[in-house]
Amino acid sequence: MVPSHSCALGAAGEDAAAAWLAQQGYQLLARNVRTRYGEIDLVVRSGTVVVFVEVKSRTGARFGHPGEAVAATKQRRLARLASAYLLAHGLGGCATRFDVIAVRLGRDGHVFGIEHIPDAFQAGE
């Protein structure tokens, strides 16, 4: 099966976000973690904090700012995903955080900008 253009752009955005986080000193723990609740784009560690990262990529402003795409329903789903990940990896006692990374891309996958929103939402919200 040939991946769609939007899937390819999403993967390019995740690649850019992972590279940017590595440059900032984050340690990549996992990528595209799938559980019965869905998928987590990136799981990284910053010191003693396990950070769950939702990556939103856009080629234009037609659908709004990428960071706005993480609505309350998605936040709740990501919190369930994070709990499942922590339990499965014996990390239940670790501090956690939910970040959003918005990646602006050209149609060819060229990265125009990355905006990192640390602590974008809380698990209980």
Q: In summary, what is this structure?
A:
With 125 residues, this protein is of the alpha+beta class. It is built from 2 helices and 5 strands, in the order H-E-E-E-H-E-E.
* Rg computed from alpha carbons, rounded to a whole number of angstroms: 14 Å
Give the CA-based shape: globular
Mean pLDDT: 87
Oligomeric status? single chain
Instruction: Give me the strand/helix succession.
Output: HEEEHEE
Describe the main β-sheet briefly.
Answer: 5 strands, mixed
Number of strands: 5
Distance between the termini: 38 Å
Notes on the structure:
With 125 residues, the chain is of the alpha+beta class. The protein is 29% helix and 40% strand. It has 2 helices and 5 strands. The chain starts with a helix and ends with a strand. The mean pLDDT is 87.
What brief labels describe this structure?
5-stranded mixed sheet; 2 helices; alpha+beta; 40% strand; 29% helix; 125 residues
Give a topology summary.
Elements: H1 5-23, E1 27-35, E2 38-46, E3 49-58, H2 72-88, E4 95-105, E5 111-121
Parallel strand pairs: 3-4
Antiparallel strand pairs: 1-2, 2-3, 4-5
